[in-house]
Design a protein that fits this description.
By secondary structure, the chain is mainly beta. The chain has 1 helix and 14 strands. The strands form 3 sheets. Strands 2, 5, 9, 10, 11, 12, 13 and 14 form an 8-stranded antiparallel sheet that branches. The protein has a 4-stranded antiparallel sheet with strand order 1-6-7-8. A two-stranded antiparallel sheet has the order 3-4.
Length: 239
């Protein structure tokens, strides 16, 4: 087949939802990812987290203006730094919702569309934090890059996707903190050859690097950092 012709039978897949095809002839539209099924996979066991529930590990650095110091007629000004992790985000969410999360609760990115708080047993504590902590990305609009390989005969693939993300936090009442954090996501997505039952093992991981700014009370802040998700795997049947 001429490589300049779009072959919809060889388009990479990612996510549990359909993605609109790009109009450009050199961009491949994505196939549908069939919903995950709780089926046994020979010799391989999926982790508890599914493809649509990815635990979030955040590491942010906030820079804020420190108080001026007057000494011997000379003012000294400097910037100080504050570290912010997933545990700190959970504390901020607790304050915003005026509640206490169960011990061991964690933050998850669900369906590549919103954050969710779950307890240590996987029970949902806050189903969608978007009114306080919101997530969005350009992948849903078809704005992304990718590279990798796919077997036309066996159907396995190994792809990396690159796209933009935006995370917003807004709590003007309790913590009086708000910020906008944006950057680039690199997502690895692999699919195995099907077994005799048509089951395939999927693996995915994400790394988000970005910059941002915000306000704490009347003070201005800058931020940098990253968010990563550990590799999660799940079973899907393509028959």
């Amino acid at each position: 087949m001429n490589k300049s012709t779009t072959d919809t039978s060889k388009n990479p897949v990612r996510r549990g939802r359909a993605t609109p095809a790009r109009k450009n002839s050199f961009m491949k539209p994505l196939r549908y990812l069939i919903p995950c099924l709780a089926l046994a996979f020979t010799g391989l066991a999926p982790s508890r987290a599914t493809a649509q529930e990815m635990p979030v590990f955040a590491q942010f650095t906030l820079q804020l203006q420190d108080f001026s110091v007057l000494r011997k007629g000379v003012y000294t000004d400097k910037v100080f730094k504050v570290r912010l992790t997933t545990l700190d985000l959970l504390d901020l969410l607790e304050n915003a919702y005026q509640t206490n999360f169960p011990f061991g609760s964690w933050l998850y990115l669900v369906d590549y569309s919103h954050f969710q708080v779950q307890d240590a047993n996987g029970n949902v504590v806050i189903a969608d934090t978007s009114d306080v902590l919101a997530y969005s990305d350009t992948f849903a609009d078809g704005d992304y890059l990718f590279h990798g390989k796919e077997s036309e005969l066996l159907g396995w693939w190994k792809y990396k996707y690159f796209y933009r993300f935006t995370i917003e936090f807004y709590d003007p009442v309790v913590s009086q903190l708000s910020f906008l954090f944006e950057g680039t996501t690199q997502e690895q997505n692999n699919r195995s050859t099907a077994n005799t039952f048509g089951d395939r093992l999927y693996r995915s991981t994400m790394m988000l690097n970005g910059l941002g700014y915000g306000y704490t009370g009347d003070g201005f802040l800058l931020m940098s950092g990253k968010i990563k998700t550990p590799r999660v795997q799940w079973i899907s049947n393509d028959n």
